[in-house]
Amino acid sequence: MIGPRTTALYAALLGILFLVITVGVFSARRAAKVAVGTGEDRMLLRASRAHANFAEYVPLILLLMALAESTGAPRLLLHAIGLATLVGRALHAFGIRQEPEPLVFRKYGMLLTLLAIAAGVIAALWGALF
Fold it and tell me: Which of 25, 34, 47, 114 has its CA 20 to 30 Å from the CA of residue 130?
């Protein structure tokens, strides 16, 4: 039996994005000369929040996608959820790393992320109940 291939694709792509965001935290730490925490450095705080925010949202979305896919959700829907997550998280991470911050990136990044969660919840519920 083949597993959730569409979810695996987006897990891999999001993993690449997570690595990029992680390297950004390393870079900010080196520039701020702060090994633990964020000190008083605003850019390190922004980089750390981009990293943490990604880690807070993406696992739930991937879990919802995998559950929905395992119960037969349409691939087009899964791709929509995955793309919304990928673009949303990239926009959010880019926006939060800027100073001064153009809120439009975070705003649309969060909107896409929340839409992905909502679609994943509906798809997983639909698969579980019907």
Answer: 114
Cα separation, 100 vs 94, in Å, equals 12
* Domains, in order of start, for the chain: 5-129 (1.20.120.550)
What is the full per-residue pLDDT of the chain (130 aa) written as tens digits?
567 999 999 999 999 999 999 999 999 999 999 999 999 999 999 999 999 999 999 999 999 999 999 999 999 999 999 999 999 999 999 999 999 999 999 999 999 999 999 999 999 999 999 9
Half-sphere exposure of 118 (CA within 13 A, CB side): 7
Name the residue among 4, 3, 16 with its Cα closest to residue 85.
Answer: 16
Residue 73 has φ and ψ, to the nearest 5°, of -60, 145
The reported pTM is 0.94
